[in-house]
Amino acid sequence: FLVSKAAEMGYGSPGEFVAELLQLFRERDSIEQKLIAAVESDDFEEVTPEFWQRLREHAAQGAPPNGTATA
Q: Where are the beta strands (DSSP E) in the chain?
């Protein structure tokens, strides 16, 4: 399975394929932990159309993400 899947997806070897899968799992776990921590912190900002507009403006300016989007 790994040999055919690695070749099908353009990886040079099954080892490269498995390494990429492990990295993706680590990233997913990290994101899940951050989401859990955010929910448990009970520090929420209401997501409104204005929030999304501020976020878009920050992104357009190349502002680094810092967890908040203030005008």
A: none
**pLDDT tens figures, 4-52:** 999 999 999 999 999 999 999 999 999 999 989 988 998 777 889 999 9
Task: Give every CB contact of residue 58 below 8 A, 6+ residues apart in sequence.
Answer: 65, 69
Q: How far apart are CA 28 and CA 52, in angstroms?
A: 24
- Extract the tokens encoding 25: 């799992």
- Rounded to an integer, what distance in angstroms lies between the CA atom of residue 66 and that of residue 58? 10
Yes or no: say if 2 and 18 are a contact pair by the CB < 8 Å rule. Answer: yes
Which backbone phi and psi does 51 adopt, to 5 degrees? -55, -50
Token pair for 63:
């502002």
Is pLDDT of 70 > 90?
no
